User: What shape does this take?
Amino acid sequence: MIRDQETINILLDTLRRFVRERLVPREAEVSDTDAIPADVVAGMKELGLFGLSIPEEFGGMGLSMEEEVLAGFEITWASPAFRSLMATNNGIGAQGIVIDGTPEQQQRYLPRLATGEIIGSFCLTEPDSGSDAASLRTSARRDGDSYVLNGTKRFITNAPEAGIYTVMARSSDVPGADGISAFIVERGTPGLSLGHVDAKMGHKGSHTCDVIFEDCRIPAANLIGGKEGVGFKTAMKVLDKGRLNIAAASVGAAQRMLFDAVNYARERKQFGKPIGDFQLIQAMLADSKTEIYAARSMLLDAARRRDDGHNVNLEAACAKMFASEMCGRVADRAVQIFGGAGYLAEYGIERLYRDVRLFRIYEGTTQIQQIVIARELIRNGVE
Ligand code: COS
Assistant: This one.
């Protein structure tokens, strides 16, 4: 860990209180209105949550991966929509610049991202390029001191709120990953427009839409890292970190659903006693606790490895796959324990059940994580 244990404990305690006192009571409102209230966003900014993983020299908290994961457990005790706004900003929205940006790019954008003055967004996916990310077709043609972008990005989280977009685009005729570069595009640039906000199954309050480039001219200085042809690698490095963050969100949300399920099992009486006294209910609670513990331990190990400077491509994929699949099972059991009440909106558990379904899909589906893990094993063998 970068900082002393006491400082991180104070941060986590503050976060825990903020999440449980300020965010949880607003969950239903956020879902019903599909918006995070301005006072809540202001509270997040005050706590510095938009800069958790942005280095301290740029005004962020500069948390290590392990610390960020611990913070993630706390944040996703509340509806993932809250996390989506601040963590997409800290995570995939800013990390391209943190990891591979030039000093000028870092100085220009990171301080404003860290305070939440501008929100970051990550544009990789396209209508015809999802899991096969290297097949993307958005083009970036060099023209003097500019690049001219054309193409459409799809399912872009935070796009309606974003002040800057990290955009992966094809800057040469080289096929596949090596022809891709990463760019920073500012909101308001002529030729940049947004599609309608997508209607989704869950994550209400977090917004996605298409980002459309039509002869969108940006300064050549906005090529991330000042180097063409390495944008796919930037995206993959960003996603390694992003996958650890989704694993943390999965663990935090699962812990919350287990909390709700245990409380319900203590209170709800059938056959003359609390349903928690019945072994079939107990088995579901025990399985959920065990799986959460396993995912939490695996994830913390992967995060520490990254902090120690190791390549965690494989470990991030293992943690993302296991934690998100685990979260789906915990959600399913929680609804089952709630019974008929679990199907009703007023108990909130069905909302979490819908929300967490996305964890198994975005930032690389379970099937993509399997491919990443298996390829590494075939390439490098087993230690
Ligand atoms: N870190 C650094 N470099 C990486 C990397 C990583 N984690 N993963 C891959 N690379 C490099 C490879 O080493 C390779 O470089 P070299 O040719 O110099 O060796 C290059 O990137 C291309 O990698 P690869 O050959 O593995 O690319 P593929 O087209 O086979 O695809 C997958 C790789 C499938 C893993 C990738 O397309 C992927 O992650 N897809 C899912 C996309 C996704 O998560 N979308 C969610 C959108 S964001 S919400």
The chain has three domains: 5-115, 120-229, 233-380.
